[in-house]
Amino acid sequence: MSGVSAGFPDRRMRRMRANAAFRRLVAEHRLSVDDLVAPLFVKEGIDSPEPVVSMPGVAQHSIESLRQEVRILAGLGVPAVMLFGIPAAKDGRGSGADAADGIVQVALRALRDDVGDSMLLITDDCLDEFTDHGHCGILTADGRVDNDATIDRYGAIAVAQADAGADVIAPSGMMDGQVRAIRAALDGAGHAEVPILAYAAKYASALYGPFRDAAECAPAFGDRRSYQMDPPNGREAFAEVALDLHEGADMVMVKPAIAYLDVIARLRDRFEVPIAAYHVSGEYAMIKAAAANDWIDGTAVALEHLVAIKRAGADFILTYLAREAAELLQ
Ligand code: PBG
What we know:
The protein is an alpha/beta fold and 330 residues long. The chain has helices spanning 12-15, 20-26, 63-76, 103-115, 147-163, 178-188, 209-214, 236-247, 261-270, 281-292, 298-312, 322-328; strands at residues 36-43, 50-51, 59-61, 80-86, 120-125, 168-171, 197-202, 251-255, 275-279, 316-319.
């Protein structure tokens, strides 16, 4: 191997670790505020934020507290937020998701005026927060998720979100053909300039538990394994990403992050498009719970997780740690 001396002892590997300045100089990756996207929850019909117990530091926001949080994030230089809505009323088809006065659309209009183009407003395009059964799609009479009826709904949701000012649409439902349906709907409604961030390799993970508290979207029966990816599968992520790009995705996402760093790294080698990673609710909750017990140094583990995701090859990271990481990186 070039550059490695045959003689012993060789101090080569330690010389450049001697102090912080040297480590900074030779660091291969660094986390920047520019890498961070803050996922935020906004709930219809509340006047003040409601803490999410399983995600310390995260709240379901009112419109006002959301505006305040987004102003703080913009001030810290965070380039984007991802919005999730919790409607006051749910039904079988998730009507609140694409209603012009649905909670996400109301939030988008308020935030658009506040932040202008200093920050990207990304929206989750899915139905689980809005359906009374908690599944990501429309159900057939026998209780299965109907793929094609669902992607029509995703198209309508994307248009409602773009009409309300969304900068990027992020479909997370893992239905076949969802990117194509959304692209066609956006283009047909005069939103050809709005890009799609596809949750391309989204696994059926047990790490989404706290999110389902935050977004009040645990499925009333069954699970999401018939549409989300099976955790043992890595190669399959190539097919998911290739299909989404073929259908018109501009950026792709791997989710969760830490348990799927191999998937991020393999996709990085194969595809040129921007790759996002979602450090999910369970990954966040594990850090917070262990830190609260003084079992780990929460701040150090948080930064280690985030730089590991960069090292694996992600271009940006959706993380509930965005605000605290941005504060540390000022
Ligand atoms: C679905 C969606 C989920 C998450 C993001 N979008 C939940 C799910 O698939 O069950 C999970 C994110 C997290 O755990 O932080 N709309």
